[in-house]
Every structure is written in structure tokens, then in C-alpha cells.
């Protein structure tokens, strides 16, 4: 714990010497910045109750469950890998897609996805 105290004092001194944003963004060594952030996160977590955590989860859009079916994304990735393999095996100068071969659409991929059971 004494090592952590010394680190925090050193960072505090650096912040008092100049513009705090500039010190954090450009002057503070990356290891010291990481240690400071871990200390801040730990201090904030001490005050976090399960109720507050649930309220924060419900309020933040960024942490809401994804409404999209992950199997559609898997199908898109599989098609991209297949297309990539075909593209690397094609004749030089030949276009990847033509009007007669438009490729696979998102509708095709979503119809291939299996329903969630």
C-alpha cells in the first residue's frame, strides 16, 4: 500500500506542476496513468451498490443487449470469408461481382439464420 501512496503523491505533484489535462494526456508515463485509472476505478467501485449498478445498466444505452441476431452476423462473416477466398482465387483483372452475379444480400443471409429457440 505504501508503494501505491508514493505513486499517487508523485502523480499529484506532476498534476500540480502543469496543466492537468496535458500532464495526463502527454507527460505522465503510461504505467503511472494506468495505475491512476485503476485506483480511480477501485475507489468508485467501493461506493457502488448492486442497486446503483443495475440503475446504471438500465440507463446506459451502450451496455444494453444487442437487438440483432448474432447468427446473421455469423452468416455475414462466413460469406465474407468465402468471398475473400473466391476473390483471391479469381483471374487477375476480373471484377469481383458482375450484374449477372450480384452476390449475397443481407436479406438472403437473414433468411438463412435459424430462429432462436
Written description of the protein model:
The chain is an all-alpha fold. 67% of the residues lie in helices and 0% in strands. The chain contains 6 helices and no strands. Helix 1 crosses helix 2 and helix 5 (70-89) crosses helix 6 (106-112).
Q: Spell the H/E element sequence.
A: HHHHHH
Q: Give the helix/strand class.
A: mainly alpha
| Total domains | 2
Q: Give the amount of beta strand, in percent.
A: under 5%
Rg result: 26 Å
In short:
The protein has 117 residues and is an all-alpha fold. The chain has helices spanning 2-17, 20-27, 30-46, 50-59, 70-89, 106-112.
What topology emerges from the helices and strands here?
Layout: H1 2-17, H2 20-27, H3 30-46, H4 50-59, H5 70-89, H6 106-112
Helix pairs in contact: 1-2, 5-6
Note the main attributes of this structure.
117 residues; mainly alpha; 2 domains; 67% helix
Amino acid at each position: 500500500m505504501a508503494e501505491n501512496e508514493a505513486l499517487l503523491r508523485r502523480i499529484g505533484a506532476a498534476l500540480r506542476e502543469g496543466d492537468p489535462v496535458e500532464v495526463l494526456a502527454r507527460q505522465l508515463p503510461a504505467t503511472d496513468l494506468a495505475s491512476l485509472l485503476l485506483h480511480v476505478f477501485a475507489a468508485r467501485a467501493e461506493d457502488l451498490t448492486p442497486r446503483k449498478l443495475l440503475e446504471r445498466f438500465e440507463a446506459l444505452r451502450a451496455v444494453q443487449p444487442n437487438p440483432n441476431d448474432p447468427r446473421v452476423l455469423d452468416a455475414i462473416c462466413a460469406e465474407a470469408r468465402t468471398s475473400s477466398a473466391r476473390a483471391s482465387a479469381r483471374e487477375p483483372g476480373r471484377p469481383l461481382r458482375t450484374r449477372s452475379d450480384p452476390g449475397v444480400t443481407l436479406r438472403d443471409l437473414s433468411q438463412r439464420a435459424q430462429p432462436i429457440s
